[in-house]
Amino acid sequence: MNEKKILVVDDEVLILDLLREVFQSAGYTVLTAESGEEALKILQHESIMVMFLDIKLPGISGIELCKKIRVENQICVIHAMTGYNNIYGLLECRAVGFDDFFVKPVRMNLLKKAAQDAFEKLERWDIVGHELA
What we know:
This protein is an alpha/beta fold. The chain is built from five helices and five strands. It has one domain (5-124): Rossmann fold (3-Layer(aba) Sandwich), CATH 3.40.50.2300. The longest helix is centred in the C-terminal third of the chain and has 17 residues, at 108-124.
């Protein structure tokens, strides 16, 4: 089976470490970034189709990061993570191209299920393992 990569972007190192461990234990290859700028550098060299982005990041926000990713890749599955729960945040996330929205603290089984669902969707679309032009 093709390698299933996940990008996790969060400025809290403890959260990055936790999510890396959770996703790796579920069989995924995990790349992490502490900023939007670092995430964009990773995406220049890696084809990653499933992402979990914190909304509040130093520098480029998660909202801006999602917009930038969507310019290059409309098919990938991007999940928002935030400590703030309100309908305006959800609407803004949907408007810029996030596929899903999680409020911290998030139950790990929900994130694993979201990753699994995302890869199943991509496989259904015959996307996993193919480079997008």
